[in-house]
């Protein structure tokens, strides 16, 4: 079992995570560890996360609500997005005959992760960021 602090805890830039496994596998994995492991900043941030359970639950609720709202509104616009339980929504490339989603978001201030197939992964965040995504998509559909 592997878990990350990237999504709900909001620590993607620190590359913090943990895993549970059989002792023999743990020994083998330990030999593959990169030198200098986790820095002090990452350790302090991870420890602080465990003391912030209320904030974590609120962040998860916000992400769930905004993800549902984003997918519902995109669907109403005729835009397909994959169903996920993560903090992002994926718009597959080639949808609706578009030249690719990266072009839709270019110059809008909305940052997306573009893929070779023309699809994009959009991180779900605040109500304001959801509005920005929907505005960019609506403008491209005119």
TrEMBL record:
Q: Where are the transmembrane segments?
A: 34-52
Top-level taxon: Bacteria
Q: Where is the Aminotransferase class I/classII large domain?
A: 1-136
Its needed co-factors are: pyridoxal 5'-phosphate
Note whether Manganese occurs among the keywords. no
Select a single GO molecular function from the record's annotations and give it: transaminase activity
Protein name, UniProt field: Aminotransferase
């Amino acid at each position: 079992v592997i878990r990350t602090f990237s999504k709900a805890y909001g620590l993607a830039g620190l590359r913090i995570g943990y895993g549970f496994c059989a002792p023999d596998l743990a020994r083998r994995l330990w030999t593959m560890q990169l030198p200098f492991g986790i820095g002090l900043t990452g350790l302090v941030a991870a420890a602080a996360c465990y003391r912030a359970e209320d904030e974590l639950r609120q962040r998860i609720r916000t992400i769930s609500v905004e993800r549902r709202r984003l997918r519902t509104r995109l669907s109403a616009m005729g835009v397909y997005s994959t169903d996920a339980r993560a903090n992002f929504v994926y718009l597959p490339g080639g949808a609706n005959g578009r030249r690719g989603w990266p072009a839709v978001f270019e110059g809008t201030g909305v940052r997306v992760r573009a893929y070779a197939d023309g699809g994009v992964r959009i991180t779900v965040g605040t109500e304001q960021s959801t509005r920005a995504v929907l505005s960019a998509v609506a403008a491209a559909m005119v």
